[in-house]
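Entry for the shared binder. Reason: the reviewer on the internal report wants the predicted structure included alongside the sequence.
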Amino acid sequence: MVYQERNAWAGLVVAVIAITVYVVLVVQRAGDGPLTDVDWLPLMLWTIGLGIVVSIVVSIVWGMVAGARDPDGVGRSDIRDRDISRMGARVEQGFVVIAGLGVIALCAVGADVFWIANTMYAGFAVSAIVGSIARVIAYRRGLV
C-alpha cells in the first residue's frame, strides 16, 4: 500500500469517527431541549482539531510500520498516485460547493447560526469521507 493510499484510509477512518463523536456530543448535550441551545462551537473546534492531529499521528505511525516492513517502497509514488489525488480532490470540491450553496440558502432564509455552521461542518465532513472513499476505490479498482 502506497503512502497516499494509507493517508486516504487514515483520513476516512478518522473523519467518520470525528463526525460521529461530534454529533453524539451535540445530541447528548441537547438532551430534551433544542439543538440550537447547545454550546456547539467548542465541540466543533475540538473535534476538528483532534481529528487533524489523530489523522496525522495515524499516518505517521502507519508509515513507520510500513517502512519497517518495506523500506524501499514506503515513499514511492507515481503518476497514478497523482491522478488519483486529483480525482479525489475534484470529488471533495463538489461536496464543499454543495455545502456552500446550502449555507448561502440558510443565510438567505435567516436560519440560526447553529444550522449554518453545522451545514458547513457536515459539508466538510462528507467531502472528506466521500473523497477518501473515491481515492480508496481508485486505488483498489483503478481509474477509468
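Summary line for the report: Helices lie at 3-30, 40-69, 79-108, 113-141.
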